[in-house]
């Protein structure tokens, strides 16, 4: 009592010091005046002191932090605008008013009128604070702040006491008190007006600052938006309105601010990664491929341990970059949670008011308004957190894509073999999404437990010890959910492994689709992909069933906790009464508890998934990189040549055995040096070593000046012809024309529809092999480099064009005559014209010197030439070289007779259409606009099963009926009358409450599991349909459609169909039925609420319609630009060695950054649109809470507390429910775009059926192999000219036919027509008298073997490459390998037939790949064999091996040999010479030479006659 008395005395002392004894109430605070009254008001002393000090304290507390922020973030300065001047004038007016108040108070004190000290102290505090306001306003102008949130909140806090004082003075004036204190009345009116004016001015933005670093044409409006607009996201309205009126285009999107661009973000993350990365890069010990990880379980388990995990440095790098923004977002979430817990406390007070019949009405309206304000503040802070996290997710995607792309450019050859394009695409799509989810959910790992503890504390305060039973229920459910989450995480990892396998399989197949079609393997590949897909979906279904169980436990936990608490509370003591306040406040707290409870496993699951993705990403980033270029040769070595190697030993990887040993080489400036040798000798490896592509274990390498490189397999960009040649250099038109002419491309350009601007398809699919090779050569020549490394560039062109290129470009009189050239070649007739010859054998240099000297030595070169020579002309090559070219007739310089157009694709394609550069773009990516059509929804629902969906709707209805009945039963329980301190029928209430809860839980599990199961069925069918639609498409489709578009559909789009759409549909259905339950509950309690519900629902519908149109288009734009990013990644991965050779990494990095930025320009508005919808819907929902509460107060005499609790607690849920429902609907429609894009290829043209029932087709057809072309004509597209014209030839059984002609003459078109890769325009082809057009494609193609110009091996074992259909025994395969002279090579491999080929067969030489393709043809044992330039890229010895094998093993077959080398077909029975798509000559070689026609001239050019 003494302490209370002392406290009261101290309080009175403070009050008497501040307050005037002459006032009506000299107290600082009076409860009877403020709370226990029908007309509440504050004491004058409190109004004049504490209320005025609150905004001042707020500003002074935050000033240091805000000032520090302003000093760190300057955007330029703003000129003195009308808004700024008005603010300053009003601030000085307020200062003047405060000074006048002090002077008036002092004057009255001098006059002897007693004055309260607070009347002097408060204006003084205000004066100091207003000076600070003026200072901050000026500082903000100088720092470029257009709208100040800090000052707006300050003026808002000032407005409330000003409004209270204003209303108090008005009331006092109405009572006649104006004349007694006219000055303070007038000053209050002026003060209120000035404060209101300042508040209004702060809602406007100032003009843009000068010298701003963001000078984009279409800047993001966020920086120019007011504070109110920023927190409600209304600055998005312009884009939303534009998207609502018409479909958005890329140019409508905002430019990225500087801090959000790839250049800024990736630069920072690279620095952080280099700083934090202390893990050694490994290629062998860290296996990136999931298949190898499964096969080597022990090694994989080691990688999961902390000491082997490279993910920690990467996590630290991300943390150091994104920490400030993330911590600010976390602060917003914490503040939002404070308001979240104030809501049930206020609800408790509100229900207490309803239960008290004597309580004044103003308290009810006060509580209703407080509920509304708290809900609004909670919404604003939570949505700010979500915005910050999702915006960080966009930045994170930029950072990861930049890191991955830059890593691709430095991957070593060994590391490159351990990964594929599909796996890399998964990294920047699926894994990045997991990391983005981590940003949103990671705070749940610590915040959810805090929420749970606070809920338990509140429940204990409300119900006492019985509330502790909820802890037992919670502790029972928590480990159950942890077990479910852990199991689900395991299945998700399994699913990711299958997803990687599928991505790898599809990426490989799409890249080599022509090979699949030529061999009729589409069905086998489809079966493989569907088998892996079934395994993936099986893991997904198991994971989703566990997820359904987890969801059911989450939702039933609300019921279980409430049931146990209420049952123990009421049954433990009959005097414990469960009233409305205890029941529904407890229920509100349990709802928060359940949210935290459900959020925790989601958060843990997100962390575990992100951990896996982070490991995968870090493992890739730690793969072995190329050795940085160093020069260690001494000055004497440097003086010896432009290309110097001393004691060089090289290997493909750090731990691989050497592939080149003891290399010593010195090539002087301006010399032409040829490199020759058999297959696998190390010719291409030597060039790779010079380029730094191999790991140098010993010695030194020196290349002086810029280098240009032409690879054996030319790499062509998906760009214009001009873009491929110029390759980032400035355009020199005169030099460009000289290069085009010298590389024999002029006639090709004349045949192209748009000339130099013709767009080249991905991987050069609309060019022949020769055209691609000449284009790659032109790129190198245009470069004007000092050193040229040429890897057999003449192999893919015919003899005449090859001779022209050698003379005009490579040779002694060519454009490169003054350059240092290293030429890998199999054209031995060129050796007399080179300065020196390097002979390679077994990875070593056998001999170096002039060709004549080496031949005379009878060494390795002489042996190589003997192998090259035919038996009939053995020794002639030696004599020709020894005689320095005597007798070898050369073509006059510059004489190239191009017969026909180069545009005709030799490799089985078509010419570009006449649409110019965009012709190839429209084939693959159809543009959709507007909202998703209903047909797309129907197709998805049908794919899942129509009856199944009807059953799902029934389950949701059952679930919601049980939920409504349970809540209504609880309201009846709370209204039970109390007799003698007890309630009747308690046991009945408990039993029914339990039964309804169990029914709801079972319905919840059933409905969720059914939706996921239907989604899995739909996903399986849509994937199978997409796969079949694509593989059934003709080659024209693949030449028009970038692989990135297809990979995007198989990765990101299918990921949406697999996981996101079923989840969103489940949420949408749940929210729709929950909303109906809430509406019914509110209308049952207060029927008049329908007046508010109808317009609010209409507003929700309008918001949703307004939002979805723009959101869907943003989704489409983002998906389209994402495809471009993936295509660029795939293109760079394939051509990385060429990019490095030209030292062009920075330009490609810049291109990647531009594409990523274009993608983020669509991704960022999508994030903002989502937040705009969520924020404004929740604010509207809070209006419904206010409506329900106000109507409950107004209808208080007619309502029971239980019904009010039921109504208001439901209204509190409607905010989240309506918000999530509309968001789920919008997200469902956004993700339905994925279904739309997956179905995009339904209507594209398809090939003929794979199999047809034919009565005339026997099992051993064709038994003879006779082929007849009857009036056969062919065109690649309806709008193009005929490529073959009226071909009439007859080929007899077992006949060997050679097909030759100039480039573009129609040679390969014959093969394409024979295999029906292109259908006939006129005429027919008969095989053994049967028209092939009447056969199924596989019936035809499996009866014909083809060895294409570009050998293709899939990333699989050698055995599966040789026998994909598993039709032959190992013994048959070894016999075939022996016949192609590869048995010993394969036998020496570590795993023999199980040896894994890398993507594209990169771990084998081109010659070896060609021999494996020949072995594949041997195994097929067909009656017809087609060799389409099969020996163009191999050395003469391998060519002889292939020809010898064909003679012996295919002697009973009909063989069609398409060749550039005329000598390759000299042994054929007859020669078919094509010219301009027509048959020019067709007879035996001897007859054609005797006629001295076109074939004679070709033989003469090759030195054979």
SSE inventory with pairings:
Elements: H1 2-18, H2 31-34, H3 44-48, H4 50-72, H5 82-110, H6 118-142, H7 149-174, H8 182-202, H9 227-232, H10 237-245, H11 262-276, H12 290-295, H13 297-303, H14 311-355, H15 361-408, H16 413-416, H17 421-441, H18 444-463, H19 469-511, H20 513-519, H21 522-572, H22 580-621, H23 635-640, E1 643-651, E2 658-667, E3 672-676, H24 683-691, E4 695-703, E5 707-710, H25 721-726, H26 733-742, H27 746-751, H28 769-782, E6 787-791, H29 799-810, E7 820-824, E8 836-841, E9 844-849, H30 851-857, H31 860-868, H32 876-882, H33 934-944, H34 946-974, E10 978-979, E11 982-983, H35 986-1031, H36 1035-1040, H37 1043-1085, H38 1090-1141, H39 1145-1194, H40 1201-1238, E12 1267-1274, E13 1284-1291, E14 1296-1301, H41 1307-1314, E15 1320-1327, E16 1330-1331, H42 1337-1341, E17 1344-1347, H43 1358-1362, H44 1370-1379, H45 1383-1387, H46 1406-1420, E18 1424-1428, H47 1436-1449, E19 1454-1458, E20 1470-1475, E21 1478-1483, H48 1485-1491, H49 1494-1501
Parallel strand pairs: 3-7, 3-8, 5-6, 6-7, 14-19, 14-20, 17-18, 18-19
Antiparallel strand pairs: 1-2, 1-4, 8-9, 10-11, 12-13, 12-15, 15-16, 20-21
Helix pairs in contact: 4-6, 4-7, 5-6, 5-8, 7-8, 10-38, 11-14, 11-15, 14-15, 14-22, 14-40, 15-17, 15-39, 17-19, 17-22, 17-37, 17-38, 18-22, 19-21, 19-22, 19-37, 21-22, 21-35, 22-40, 31-47, 33-35, 34-35, 34-37, 34-40, 35-37, 37-38, 37-40, 38-39, 38-40, 39-40, 44-46, 48-49
């Amino acid at each position: 009592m003494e302490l209370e008395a002392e406290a009261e005395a101290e309080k009175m002392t403070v009050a008497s010091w501040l307050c005037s004894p002459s006032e009506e109430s000299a107290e600082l605070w009076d409860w009877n005046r403020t709370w226990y009254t029908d007309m509440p008001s504050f004491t004058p002393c409190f109004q004049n002191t504490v209320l005025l000090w609150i905004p001042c304290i707020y500003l002074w507390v935050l000033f240091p932090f805000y000032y520090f922020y302003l000093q760190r973030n300057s955007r330029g300065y703003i000129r003195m605008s009308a808004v700024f001047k008005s603010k300053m004038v009003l601030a000085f007016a307020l200062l003047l008013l405060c000074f006048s108040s002090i002077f008036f108070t002092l004057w009255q004190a001098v006059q002897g009128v007693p004055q309260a000290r607070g009347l002097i102290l408060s204006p003084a505090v205000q004066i100091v604070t207003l000076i600070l306001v003026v200072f901050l306003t000026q500082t903000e102008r100088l720092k470029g702040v257009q709208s100040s949130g800090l000052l707006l909140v300050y003026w808002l806090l000032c407005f409330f006491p000003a409004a209270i004082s204003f209303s108090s003075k008005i009331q006092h004036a109405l009572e006649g008190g104006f004349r007694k204190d006219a000055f303070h009345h007038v000053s209050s009116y002026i003060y209120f007006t000035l404060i209101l004016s300042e508040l209004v001015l702060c809602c406007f933005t100032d003009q843009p600052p000068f010298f701003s670093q963001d000078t984009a044409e279409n800047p993001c409006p966020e920086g120019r938006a007011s504070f109110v607009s920023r927190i409600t996201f209304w600055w998005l309205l312009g884009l939303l309105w534009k998207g609502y009126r018409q479909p958005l285009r890329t140019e409508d999107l905002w430019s990225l601010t500087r801090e959000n661009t790839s250049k800024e973000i990736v630069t920072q993350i690279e620095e952080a990664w280099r700083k934090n990365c202390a893990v050694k890069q490994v290629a062998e010990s860290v296996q990136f491929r999931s298949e190898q990880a499964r096969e080597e379980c022990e090694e994989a388990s080691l990688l999961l341990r902390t000491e082997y995990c490279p993910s920690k440095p990467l996590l630290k790098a991300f943390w150091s970059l994104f920490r400030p923004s993330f911590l600010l977002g976390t602060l917003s979430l914490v503040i939002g949670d404070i308001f979240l817990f104030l809501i049930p406390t206020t609800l408790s007070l509100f229900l207490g008011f309803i239960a008290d019949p004597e309580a004044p009405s103003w308290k009810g309206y006060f509580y209703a308004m407080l509920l509304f304000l708290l809900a609004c503040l909670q919404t604003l802070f939570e949505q700010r957190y979500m915005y910050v996290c999702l915006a960080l997710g966009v930045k994170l995607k930029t950072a990861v894509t930049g890191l991955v792309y830059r890593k691709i450019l430095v991957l070593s050859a060994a590391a490159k073999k351990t990964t594929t394009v599909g796996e890399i695409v998964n990294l920047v799509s699926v894994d990045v999404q997991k990391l983005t989810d981590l940003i949103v959910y990671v705070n749940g790992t610590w915040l959810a437990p805090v929420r749970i503890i606070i809920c338990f504390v509140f429940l204990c305060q409300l119900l006492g010890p019985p509330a502790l039973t909820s802890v037992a229920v919670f502790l029972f459910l928590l480990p159950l959910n942890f077990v479910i989450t852990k199991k689900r995480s395991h299945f998700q990892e399994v699913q990711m492994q299958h997803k990687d396998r599928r991505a790898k399989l599809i990426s490989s197949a799409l890249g080599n689709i022509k090979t699949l079609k030529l061999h009729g393997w589409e069905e086998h590949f489809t079966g493989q992909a569907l088998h892996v897909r079934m395994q993936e979906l099986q893991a997904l279904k198991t994971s989703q069933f566990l997820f359904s169980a987890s969801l059911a436990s989450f939702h039933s936990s609300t019921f279980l906790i409430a049931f146990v608490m209420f049952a123990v509370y009421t049954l433990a003591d009959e005097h414990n009464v469960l009233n409305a306040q205890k029941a529904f406040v407890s229920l509100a707290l349990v709802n928060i508890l359940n949210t935290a409870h459900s959020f925790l496993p989601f958060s843990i699951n997100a962390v575990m998934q992100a951990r896996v993705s982070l490991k995968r990403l870090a493992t890739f980033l730690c793969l072995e990189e190329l050795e940085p270029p160093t020069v260690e040769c001494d000055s004497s070595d440097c003086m010896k040549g432009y290309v110097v190697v001393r004691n060089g030993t090289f290997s493909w990887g750090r731990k691989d055995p050497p592939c080149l040993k003891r290399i010593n080489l010195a090539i002087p400036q301006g010399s032409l040096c040829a490199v020759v040798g058999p297959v696998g000798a190390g010719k291409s490896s030597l060039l790779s070593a010079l380029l730094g592509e191999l790991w140098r274990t010993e010695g030194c390498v020196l290349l002086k000046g810029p280098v240009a490189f032409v690879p054996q397999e030319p790499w062509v960009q998906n760009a214009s012809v001009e873009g491929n040649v110029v390759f980032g250099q400035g355009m020199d038109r005169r030099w460009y024309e000289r290069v085009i002419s010298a590389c024999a491309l002029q006639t090709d350009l004349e045949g192209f529809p748009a000339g130099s601007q013709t767009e080249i398809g991905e991987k050069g699919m609309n060019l022949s092999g020769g055209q691609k090779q000449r284009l790659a050569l032109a790129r190198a020549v245009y470069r004007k480099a000092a050193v040229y490394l040429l890897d057999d560039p003449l192999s893919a062109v015919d003899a005449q064009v090859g001779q022209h290129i050698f003379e005009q470009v490579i040779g002694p009189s060519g454009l490169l005559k003054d350059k240092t050239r290293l030429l890998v070649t199999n054209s031995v007739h060129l050796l007399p014209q080179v300065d020196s010859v390097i002979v390679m054998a077994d990875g070593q240099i056998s001999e170096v010197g002039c060709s004549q000297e080496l031949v005379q030595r009878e060494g390795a070169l002489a042996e190589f030439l003997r192998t090259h020579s035919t038996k009939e002309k053995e020794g002639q090559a030696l004599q020709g070289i020894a005689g320095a070219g005597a007798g070898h007739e050369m073509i006059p310089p510059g004489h190239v007779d191009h017969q026909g157009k180069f545009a005709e694709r030799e490799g089985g394609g078509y010419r570009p259409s006449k649409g110019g550069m965009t012709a190839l773009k429209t084939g693959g990516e159809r543009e959709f606009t507007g909202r998703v059509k209903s047909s797309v929804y129907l197709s998805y629902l049908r794919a899942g099963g129509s009856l199944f969906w009807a059953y799902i709707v029934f389950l949701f209805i059952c679930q919601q009926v049980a939920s409504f009945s349970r809540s209504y039963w609880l309201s009846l329980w709370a209204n039970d009358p109390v007799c003698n301190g007890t309630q009747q029928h308690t046991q009945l209430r408990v039993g029914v409450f339990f039964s309804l809860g169990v029914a709801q839980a079972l319905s919840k599990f059933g409905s969720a599991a059914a939706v996921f199961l239907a989604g899995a069925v739909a996903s399986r069918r849509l994937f199978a349909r997409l796969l079949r639609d694509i593989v059934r498409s003709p080659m024209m489709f693949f030449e028009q459609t970038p692989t990135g578009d297809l990979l995007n559909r198989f990765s990101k789009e299918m990921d949406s169909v697999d996981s996101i759409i079923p989840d969103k549909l489940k949420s949408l259905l749940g929210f729709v039925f929950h909303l109906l339950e809430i509406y019914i509950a509110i209308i049952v309690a207060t029927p008049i609420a329908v007046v508010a519900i109808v317009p609010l629902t209409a507003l929700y519908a309008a918001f949703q319609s307004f939002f979805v149109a723009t959101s869907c288009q943003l989704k489409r734009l983002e998906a389209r630009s994402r495809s471009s990013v993936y295509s660029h990644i795939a293109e760079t991965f394939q051509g990385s060695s060429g990019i490095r050779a030209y030292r062009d990494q920075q330009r490609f990095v810049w291109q990647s950054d531009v594409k990523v930025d274009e993608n983020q320009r669509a991704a960022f508005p999508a994030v903002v649109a989502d937040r705009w919808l969520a924020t404004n819907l929740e604010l509207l929902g809070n209006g419904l809470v206010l409506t329900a509460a106000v109507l409950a107060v107004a209808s208080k005499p007619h309502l029971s507390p239980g019904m009010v609790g039921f109504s208001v607690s439901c209204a509190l849920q409607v905010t989240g429910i309506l918000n999530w429902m509309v968001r789920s609907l919008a997200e469902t429609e956004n993700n339905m775009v994925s279904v739309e894009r997956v179905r995009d290829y339904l209507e594209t043209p398809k090939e003929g059926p794979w199999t047809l029932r034919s009565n005339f087709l026997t099992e051993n057809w064709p038994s003879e192999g006779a082929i007849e072309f009857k009036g056969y004509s062919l065109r690649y597209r309806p709008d193009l000219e005929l490529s073959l014209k009226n071909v009439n030839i007859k080929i007899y059984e077992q006949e060997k036919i050679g097909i030759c002609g100039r480039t573009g003459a129609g040679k390969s078109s014959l093969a394409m027509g024979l295999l029906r890769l292109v259908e006939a325009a006129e005429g027919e082809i008969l095989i053994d008298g049967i028209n092939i057009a009447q056969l199924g494609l596989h019936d035809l193609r499996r009866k014909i073997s083809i060895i294409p110009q570009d050998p293709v091996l899939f990333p699989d074992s050698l055995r599966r490459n040789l026998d994909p259909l598993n039709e032959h025994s190992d013994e048959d395969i070894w016999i075939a390998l022996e016949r192609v002279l590869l048995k010993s090579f394969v036998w020496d491999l570590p795993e023999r037939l199980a040896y894994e080929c890398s993507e594209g067969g990169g771990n084998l030489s081109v010659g070896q790949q060609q021999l494996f393709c020949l072995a594949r043809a041997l195994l097929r044992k067909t009656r017809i064999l087609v060799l389409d330039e099969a020996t163009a890229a191999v050395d003469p010895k391998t060519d002889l091996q292939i020809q010898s094998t064909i003679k012996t093993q295919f002697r009973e077959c009909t063989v069609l040999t398409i060749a550039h080398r005329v000598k390759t077909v000299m042994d054929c029975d007859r020669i078919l010479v094509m010219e301009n798509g027509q048959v020019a000559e067709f007879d035996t070689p001897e007859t054609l030479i005797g006629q001295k026609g076109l074939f004679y001239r070709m033989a003469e050019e090759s030195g054979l006659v």
